[in-house]
Amino acid sequence: MDKGKTYLVTGGAGFIGSNYIKYIIDKYDNIKVVNLDKLTYAGNQENLQSVADKDNYTFIKGDICDQKLIGELFEKYSPDYVINFAAESHVDRSIGNPDDFIKTDIYGVYSLLENCRNFGIEKFVQISTDEVYGSIDKGSFSEDDTFNPSSPYAASKTGGDRLAYSYFVTYDLPVVITRASNNYGPNQYPEKLIPLFITNAIDNKKLPLYGDGKNVRDWLFVEDHCKGVEFVLQNGKNGEAYNIAGNCELQNIEITKKILELTGKSEELIEYVKDRAGHDRRYSLDDSKIADLGWQPEYDFEEGMRETVEWYKNHEYWWRKIKSGEYLEYYKEHYGEDM
Ligand code: NAD
Ligand code: TYD
Q1: CATH for 233
Q2: Is 215 in the pocket of ligand 2 (CB under 6 A)?
Q3: Quick check: is 108 in a domain?
Q4: Beta strand segments in 94-133, E
Q5: Which one of the ligands is nearest to 190 CA?
Q6: Which residues are marked as active site?
């Protein structure tokens, strides 16, 4: 077990980053965590209430694109590890307005890497995604397969992924890259499929299923993802990428029916709507590389979904604020007043 290290976690106020911070603070006695987050619409300090007052946790509001600020943080905190979760992360938003995606998901990674190169670190973890590979009809993608990103989100994440790799090859920076499947669990912003549909179902609102509802995603419980990231940080080989799969491929309609079952609502809430532009049909990861190193996910989907639905039922104050504010404006703009 690693002790006494300083972790600079970027994007730690978002869904996965906040779960990761809570996980490592709970796991290790003697680490320090500095959380740098811009607090975009997706960043929420309430996600970190349980650690906010701890002596070994520091929050800094700031942008990963701000090289000067990152330099000051390196001077002050001398991080051993940098784990970059910060990103614009929603495909639909990237279709509407790719600008921030290019800035944060590419330039932001560059800005972090430059500082890591100048100051020196033990490990840089770039949180990439399965979406860099694009869609696959049959079989699963391995880490060495070709990139074929379809959305501005996936393309900008591919840029960040390859920039991180280039700093390993060119400057010998100790970089590892993780590419995970679709995550679900507590604290996910209710614009993504699972939290959007759970919260809509609770409110007896329609569940807008894109296209024929048969697109397939592989689902990974967020706690498993956090454990996988930490495993790769501790055990991954520099310059290598690791797929982190949930090994749970489901069609969107199957997820939707499960949500309706767990919330006790009728399938009449399902509404088929216009398909997403460039909608990837299926994501699938071959995770034998990380499995050979000794890691696999622990949650099964039933258990993860039950916990997730319970969390949203018990945390209405968290998501109602989000859905009644900025998010609602976005939702209406894209799907009309009546949805
Ligand atoms: P999220 O949108 O919930 O959180 C992103 C966080 O990054 C927010 O707190 C936001 O304020 C912060 N941020 C955005 N731009 C920033 C900037 N310029 N500087 C500093 N902070 C900034 O996203 P998430 O779902 O938690 O995803 C985290 C990471 O995991 C992303 O890199 C994403 O690409 C990757 N990923 C996500 C999934 C998934 O299913 N959610 C799957 C695989 C990989
Ligand atoms: P999403 O949660 O946005 O993740 P990603 O696009 O990164 O995989 O979407 C998951 C799947 O659910 C994807 O196939 C698109 C679909 N979807 C809907 O059918 N309706 C919705 O309202 C949303 C947000 C997604």
Answers
A1: 3.40.50.720
A2: yes
A3: yes
A4: 123-129
A5: 2
A6: 130-131, 153
